[in-house]
Design a protein that fits this description.
Length: 391
């Protein structure tokens, strides 16, 4: 297998983590004749370092790094490069299959194509807010449809993502597919296990939401649930919002909502944290809560569970599939239902202990040594180079 891994779309922490996790398993299970090429740009070259850390060694000659132009840091630049230059690069490197993290399909590639379907943004109502976003979403929906119709295999980040992709393709099914969950690398899993067993005290009234705080994360409903906890249930809970805010206007709107709801002093916007500090947040929170309207998987929820923290999440997307018995679920807009479940976990020690134990058991399903197996099987089942790949 001579595999080109196109990581140009891995521009956030979750995307990088997925590439590192699956590629580490590909390298660990490589056969003697296997060769891999990793395509990066100057905005995600840290994948190279993270991969070496995950492996505990340098990848060696089995893996070659190739740098794409700086324009590929942006979505439009990536789209142009993949359409105009990637086929030539793949031919020059003599790869016999290509794996992309973009969820789409690239015209012109003459080798079997595989893709990881991880991003639901373009496929759910309300994701696109501006004219540019709506145009981008339309183009993404088209390339996702082509992925179903023409790619040689799709690794879906959840059953939820498979449902969205097939609906977008008019009910058509992919040629070959598998559920290929994101997960935790061995180092991260061990670090979370260690902090779970530490003597760090939990905040008995602490609610954590760790995510990229985009509008579809629906933080406003979480703010309303906090207000109901304070006013109707007399539970003075505290909410910590950890993660970046790509839309400054949305952050201002949430700050305004919290202040107007009377819970401004109980909401702390922490921003991005390094990994060690984030693990402490997972361990010291009483509950992890995210009422996102669109979540393809939700790595932070699994990280929280691994640290022993139960989850309250929205049922419309992948959360019930992913968090299993270690979470409680409500409709994304149901602030009262969320407040009820948060109240019980904050005040009922027996219920909390049972759900915490279930969360730890559930999170053990999500390690790359387990979840990468369907992807590796999908790639190895590819037709030989030179056969008709539908391009």
């Amino acid at each position: 297998m001579n595999l080109l891994v196109n990581a140009l779309s891995a521009t956030n922490h979750s995307g990088r983590q997925v590439i590192v996790g699956h590629l580490a398993q590909l390298l660990e299970t490589a056969e003697p004749a296997d060769r891999f090429v990793l395509l990066l740009h100057d905005g995600n070259r840290d994948i190279e370092r993270a991969l070496a850390e995950e492996l505990g060694r340098a990848p060696g000659e089995t893996l070659r790094m190739v740098a794409a132009p700086a324009l590929t840091r942006r979505w439009f630049g990536r789209a142009l490069y993949e359409r105009l230059a990637l086929p030539t690069l793949a031919a020059r490197l003599v790869v016999d299959r290509c794996l992309s993290a973009s969820g789409g399909w690239t015209p012109g590639l003459r080798c079997p194509q595989f893709t990881l379907a991880l991003n639901p943004w373009a496929l759910v109502p309300g994701g696109a807010r501006t004219a540019f976003d709506r145009a981008k979403a339309a183009l993404q929906r088209r390339t996702y449809r082509l992925a179903v119709l023409r790619s040689d295999g799709i690794g879906y980040g959840s059953e939820y993502m498979r449902t969205l992709y097939r609906a977008n393709a008019g009910g058509r099914a992919e040629r070959a597919g598998a559920i290929v969950y994101p997960a935790l690398g061995a180092r991260e899993a061990a670090a979370l296990d260690a902090i779970r067993g530490s003597d760090l005290p939990r905040d008995p009234l602490g609610i954590l939401c760790a995510s990229l705080m985009a509008p579809h994360k629906n933080i406003e409903t979480l703010i309303e649930a906090l207000r109901l906890l304070h006013e109707d249930r007399c539970v003075p809970a505290r909410l910590r919002l950890v993660g970046g805010w790509p839309d400054p206007a949305y952050r201002r709107a949430i700050e305004r909502r919290a202040a107007e709801s009377g819970v401004g002093e109980a909401v702390e916007i922490v921003g991005h944290l390094p990994r060690e500090a984030l693990r402490r947040e997972y361990r010291t929170a009483r509950v992890y809560a995210l009422l996102s309207r669109s979540e393809s998987f939700g790595i932070p929820s699994v990280e929280a569970q691994r640290a022993g923290t139960p989850v309250v999440a929205a049922r419309e997307c992948a959360a019930p599939e992913v968090c299993g018995d270690g979470g409680w679920y409500v409709a994304a807009g149901d602030a009262a239902g969320a407040a009820d479940r948060l109240c019980r976990l904050l005040t009922d020690d027996a219920a909390w202990s049972a759900l915490s134990a279930a969360a730890v058991r559930n999170a053990a399903r999500f390690e790359y040594r387990l979840t990468s197996r369907p992807l590796i099987a999908l790639l190895r089942a590819a037709r030989p180079a030179g056969s008709d790949s539908g391009t």
